[in-house]
Each structure stands twice: as C-alpha cells, then as structure tokens.
Amino acid sequence: MAGQDAARGGFVERLKGKAKRAAGAVVGDERLTHEGELHEQKADAVEEAAILDEEAARQREEAELSVRERELAAEEQRLAAEAAADARDARVEQQARDEVRRLEHEQAEREAAIEQQERAQHASVAAATRRAAEVRSDELRAARAVTDEAERARATADTLDRVVNEDQ
Predict the structure, then answer these.
(1) How far apart are CA 136 and CA 144, in angstroms?
(2) pLDDT tens readout for residues 84-131
(3) Closest of 43, 48, 50 to residue 20, by C-alpha
(4) First to last CA, the chain
(5) Domain-by-domain residue ranges, the chain?
(6) C-alpha to C-alpha distance for 113 and 118, rounded to whole angstroms
(7) What is the tens place of the pLDDT at every residue in 20-54?
(8) What are the φ and ψ backbone dihedral angles of 28, each rounded to 5 degrees?
(9) Cα-trace Rg, the chain
C-alpha cells in the first residue's frame, strides 16, 4: 500500500517536473526549468525509495523466514534430543528391570537349591535315623537272644547242678 502511494507521489512529481520544465523552456525561465528538474529528481528519488522499501520489506520477510526456519530447526533438534534422552532413559529403565528380574531369578534358583539340599539332608537324616533304629532293633533282638541263651544256660547249669547234687 505504501509502495502504491509512493508510486503515485512519484508520478505526480514527475508530471509537475515535466510541466515546469516545459513551461520554463517555453517562457525562458531557468528557475522554473530547474524547479522542474528538481521535481523529476524527487520523482526518481521517491520511486527509488519505493523500490528500496519493497526490497527492504522482502529482505525483512526473508530474514524473518530464515529466523523462523532456524528456530524450527533448533526446536526439531531439541525434540530429537528429548526423544533420544527419553529412549535412553527407557532403555536404562528396561535394563534395570531386566537386571532385577535376573537377580530375582538367580535368588529363586539359589533358594530352590537350598530347599532341595535341606530336603535331601532331612531325607538323609531320616534314613540314618531309620537305619539306626533298625540296627538298635537288631542289636536288641540279638541281646534278647543272648539273654535267652544265657537264661537257658543258667537253667541247664542249675539242672546239672541239681543232678550232680542228687547223685552225690
């Protein structure tokens, strides 16, 4: 919009300049001719200023676009870094969970081995106790048999003693 106003203003100044120059040339007024040239120079300056304003506006837009693109790129990098950090954190957490599971599994295996060992020891103790009871029972039977034999031997000795005493 400002460029259109400047272009109109430059056109008007150029018309004024040409009219004054022509009038100055016709009437022979150097001052009027010079004034016409100044109006034309002003028109050139206004047109050049409008062109430069448009160029400056375009450069500002390009600069703003460039800044925005850099901001977007920086944001993308930040998001990528966050995503990488999140992925790394998730990996570390998963590794920690895996390690905990592994340790729990090892602990459970150790506890199962200890329980199995305890059961084996209890079974061994029970078997040893049974064997000891069997041995004791066998020894008691053997002792009873010896006692019974001793009784019979005493009875035989008593009987022989009586027979010897009767024969005397």
Answers:
(1) 12
(2) 999 999 999 999 999 999 999 999 999 999 999 999 999 999 999 999
(3) 43
(4) 169
(5) 1-82
(6) 8
(7) 899 889 999 999 999 999 999 999 999 899 899 99
(8) 80, 25
(9) 63
Farthest CA pair distance, the chain: 206
CB within 8 Å of 150: residues ≥ 6 apart: none
Left if phi > 0, otherwise alpha if psi is -120 to 50, otherwise beta: which for 29? beta
- pLDDT, position 158: 86
Contact 39, 20 (CB under 8 A): yes
Angle at 48 between CA 46 and CA 49, to 5 degrees: 60
* Residue range 146-159: mean pLDDT, rounded: 91
Concatenating the DSSP letter of every residue in 107-133 gives: HHHHHHHHHHHHHHHHHHHHHHHHHHH
What's the one-letter identity of residue 68? Answer: R
Whole-prediction pTM value? 0.44
Could you tell me if 18 and 36 are in contact, meaning their C-beta atoms sit under 8 angstroms apart?
A: yes
Residue 166 has a pLDDT of 82
Rounded CA separation 159/37 (Å): 178
**Entry field: residues in the chain:** 168
pLDDT digits over 60-69, tens only?
A: 999 999 999 9
Cα separation, 98 vs 93, in Å, equals: 9
